[in-house]
Amino acid sequence: MTDPRPDDHATLERLAALAVQALDEARRLGATAAEASAHDQRGLDVNVRLGEVESVERTRDRGLAITVYVGQRKAQASTADLQPDSLRRTVEMACAIARHTGEDPANGLADPDRMAREPRDFDQWHPWAIEADEAIALAIEAEAAGREADPRIANSDGASVSTNAGLSVYANSHGFVGRERNTSHSISASLIAGRGDAMQGGYWYTSAIRPEDLEQAAAVGRKAAERTVARLDPRPAPTGEFPVLFVPEAARSLVAHLVGAVSGGALYRKASFLLGARGERLFPEWFRILERPHLPRGWRSGDFDADGVATRESALVEDGVLQRYVLGTYSARRLGMVSTGNAGGVHNLEVASNAEDFDAILKGMRRGLVVTELMGQGVNTVTGDYSRGAAGFWIEDGAIVHPVDELTIASNLREMFLAIEAVGADIDRRSATSVGSVLVGRMTVAGA
Questions:
Q1: Distance between CA atoms of residues 390 and 376, nearest Å
Q2: Domains and CATH numbers, the chain
């Protein structure tokens, strides 16, 4: 982007001033409490296919949202127009609506003594000063490297380059004003191998907070080609109960199912298979998940959550035991508990490894399934029943023998969590959940 945001500090201060103005206006109009969030985000996304440009999109998104409380009545309004008159009308609308909403004893700001008071820099701000034509050239390079890597690559779904820079502010009538800034960048390629009914698709991507940490574009294309041709000529998998090894990209979904089940909204709605599970052993005794919100250059690092509550490092799972739930202020009050600093979601999660790399786990499996791709939404969050389409590779004598697709894997998440036998050292750090390959000792595989 031609504008690498050298004025980010000034922009943050303007956003902070607007948020405070909105809070002052809410107070003037009779709100007993209020909170406001403002953001300014910019991005560039380019997509190419077969060496030709398909799209170039520049994004700019600015806005402010105000939540007002009149006693325990609550209302929210937002605007993308940050001019004084528009802000005033937005606050007036929120205050007018609040007077006609029902009271909820759980409504209100977080306690003032829970506010974050020590702002820190987590090294998340690394804008990429890249022009559109440079981004296009990188995307073409990634796709070309993939198409040239193997003669079996017959087509392409394209390649993309994206960069985003975001500034945000959260403020409330406790006097708290929090500022955040972050960047993210990525390069991806998606290829097709084979012809006719024998075609298979595959992809690879790299993502980072710093552009210097991205893989080279050509390397992304070659990796995408390698993964694509590996899927050619799939054969049926047998039906039965077998160990299943989730590669890191697929293993992240298991962590997401856990987090969703122990999040406040699911719990107070009684829509979770883990109701009342705090303090219960859900995993093997060696298993651990740590939340690290203050990790330098972390994807979701931050001093405060969406309520302004100070974040802290803590275990979600320790010695296989669920230590706590994932709560914001509102859900905590609905459950008669206290916030865990997770309004807006979890921060950086790290799943501890207990095994060597992927190849070592594979050798120990002897016979089973490696899952590289999951399809469908077959997870019942109320019962924990799990049934999803999958693709990957079949294992015999501890080695990959052929690709498989069009199969289903099934179990129950409680059983799956307890059946985890290994978490590999092949940790994928391309998201806020860092986890290696995860071996579940037994699942039902429905193949041929």
A1: 9
A2: 8-229 (3.30.2290.10), 240-253+353-446 (no CATH)
